Amino acid sequence: MNGPALPPLSNESTGSERIAADGALPFRKPRLEAAIGWLAACGFLFLAVVTVVVGVQSRERAIDGAQERARAAVRVLAEHAARLFDAADLLVEYAAQESADRPWTEVAGSRVLWDKLNAQRARLPFLDAIWLNDATGLLRLTTAAFPAPYSDASDREIFLFHQRNAQQGRLVDQPHVGPRIIGRVTNKATFLLSRRLSEPNGGFRGIASVTIDPSYLSGFYKELDLPHEPVTILVRAGSLDVLVREPDSSAEPTPLSDTARRAIEVEPDGGVARDVATIVAHRRVDSWPVHVVVRLDLAPILASWQRLIAPYAGLAAAAAMALAALSVFGFRQAGAARQVQRELERRVRDRTASLERTIGERDAVLAQKDLLMREANHRIKNSLQVVSSLLSLQGQAVGDAQLSEHLLEAGRRVQAIADIHRLLYRVDDVHFIPFHDYLTELCRELERSARSEGGNWRLELVVEPVEVPTDHAVQLGLLANELVMNAIKHAYRPLASTMVGAAAGSQAGAPDGAPEDTNVIVVGLRRDGETLQMIVGDRGVGLPPDFDWRRSRSLGMRLIHTLSKQLDAILSIENTDPGVRFTISLPHRFTVGGSPE
């Protein structure tokens, strides 16, 4: 009872396609292992993308947060430095006022003035001493010692700055912040804030200055609660010399980095810059010629970010391991299921092979033929619809009205042929086509098109179920299209042209008794014995008595004449008063069951 043995199933399922035992067309059989593999790959890809996106976004947020904290820190430090310099400047002005109008010998020997200045200096812990130098640069009074020790500041930058301004006739007394120096009296690192002293006549009298203790500012910067161990720097404007740097254990502060210099030069009032290793935030101290700079190294920021992202990376790794385990389990289950499936298929195939081979070969050939026929008609229909659309678009685009009308008519004719092929791939029997369905759809489409262009059109259909051979369905469909379009274009025109154009003669107005508001076209399809009749009539202006359709030069009438001859059909035209009626009589071969000659 078993049929001929078939090759093992394992040989057939090695590729993506296998041939059925009965000889049917190849079919694609999805493999469960492949599906599991693709799902696993998509899962791993999703985890990788999510991990990368979350990591990159969180890294940028960490860096952006550090930049915001650095920006806030320099804002606070700039306000603190502004208050400090304002207080130091007030003390300088106080010393200048107290020493004004006094000879330098009196200033140098006045213990009372020394006590007064020293008392004011003691109120400001960030200041070391007050200094009064005469026009030659000689030190006359200092709160660091009494009497003042010998010191000549004529070569110091701060003295030269004010002396040069006085020589150039600049009346504005500008405060000046000097560079970081080692004091000749105190022997300590310091920098000075100074102002010019002027004679009553405006001449240069000397300078008054105070020394600001960098260690006080370093201590203040050290006490600030800033994350990631920042480097806090106070620099002079212009030269960008470092005045204070915390932390910095060297006697001479490390110069400002190139990144910080470029940032200050690009945005003098303040901003944030970043390179591959550091974040630099800076801000100018109000109207003072100094900048506060906060530099953060990216290394501790990224280390903190890595500690923050580590749990999420662990979760992603755990999810990846779980997905891998599920994939392995799925592959094993799919393999076991495939083995069972192979065994069952082998048993079924062995018992039904003989019967399936015979029936399958026949069904496969029929199915392939039917599929090819339907596919051919479907592609022809699509191509014809494209041609029809192109003709219609071209007709709408050209400027010549007559050429546009011709192109639109050609598009409708091509569409009529496409509709025939649309029915061919929808019907079960490709040898005959239900022409009554085609004629109904054609008339409804033409009626909608006519109404969209204006006019109260109505097509009355009186059709019987009729199937015609597919070999002649195109000609018959074109005949129906031409007759109905002829009636729509010419039957109710109150012009000097008839339904077939200039060759038909001349009428004017509508016939007596014809409705003025309704344009009726009657379309009929019926059997009369062994003859099939298609009738298209109207109640319009009719044809002139001397009209001979056989000699008409109208393309529509020539098509009707040619198609009728191809079908061996009899065409009759008669005036019905009102209107005209076209009748196409076809021989018996157009009825169901007839065979075309």
Work out the number of β strands.
20
Task: Give the CATH superfamily of the domain at 434-590.
Answer: Histidine kinase-like ATPase, C-terminal domain
Tell me the Rg in angstroms: 52 Å
- CATH structural class of the domain at 434-590: Alpha Beta
- How much β-strand is present in the residues? 15-25%
Dominant shape:
elongated
Count the DSSP helices: 12
Question: End-to-end span in angstroms?
Answer: 49 Å
Derived from helix and strand composition plus strand pairing, the structural class reads alpha+beta
- Helical content stands at 40-55%
Q: pLDDT under 50 segments (min length 5)?
A: 1-27, 495-515, 592-597
What does the main sheet amount to? 6 strands, antiparallel
**What's the architecture of the domain at 434-590 in CATH terms?**
2-Layer Sandwich
- Roughly what is the average pLDDT, rounded to an integer? 78
CATH topology heading of the domain at 434-590: Heat Shock Protein 90
Q: What's the helix and strand layout?
A:
Elements: H1 9-12, E1 17-18, E2 27-28, H2 32-99, H3 104-109, H4 111-122, E3 127-134, E4 139-142, H5 157-167, E5 176-177, E6 181-182, E7 189-198, E8 204-212, H6 214-223, E9 231-236, E10 242-246, H7 258-266, E11 270-274, E12 278-284, E13 290-297, H8 298-397, H9 401-424, E14 432-434, H10 435-452, E15 457-463, E16 467-469, H11 473-490, E17 519-528, E18 531-538, H12 555-566, E19 570-575, E20 580-586
Parallel strand pairs: 15-17
Antiparallel strand pairs: 1-2, 3-4, 3-8, 5-7, 6-7, 7-8, 9-10, 9-13, 11-12, 12-13, 14-16, 17-18, 18-20, 19-20
Task: Describe the 3D structure.
With 597 residues, the chain is of the alpha+beta class. It has a domain at 434-590: Heat Shock Protein 90. It has 12 helices and 20 strands. It has helices at residues 9-12, 32-99, 104-109, 111-122, 157-167, 214-223, 258-266, 298-397, 401-424, 435-452, 473-490, 555-566; strands spanning 17-18, 27-28, 127-134, 139-142, 176-177, 181-182, 189-198, 204-212, 231-236, 242-246, 270-274, 278-284, 290-297, 432-434, 457-463, 467-469, 519-528, 531-538, 570-575, 580-586. Strands 3, 4, 5, 6, 7 and 8 form a 6-stranded antiparallel sheet that branches. It has a 5-stranded antiparallel sheet with strand order 10-9-13-12-11, with helices on both faces. It has a 5-stranded mixed sheet with strand order 15-17-18-20-19, with helices on one face. Helix 10 packs parallel to helix 11. This is histidine kinase. InterPro entries: HATPase_C_sf, HATPase_dom, Sig_transdc_His_kin_sub2_dim/P. It is an enzyme of class 2 (transferase). The chain crosses the membrane at residues 35-56, 309-331. It catalyses: ATP + protein L-histidine = ADP + protein N-phospho-L-histidine.
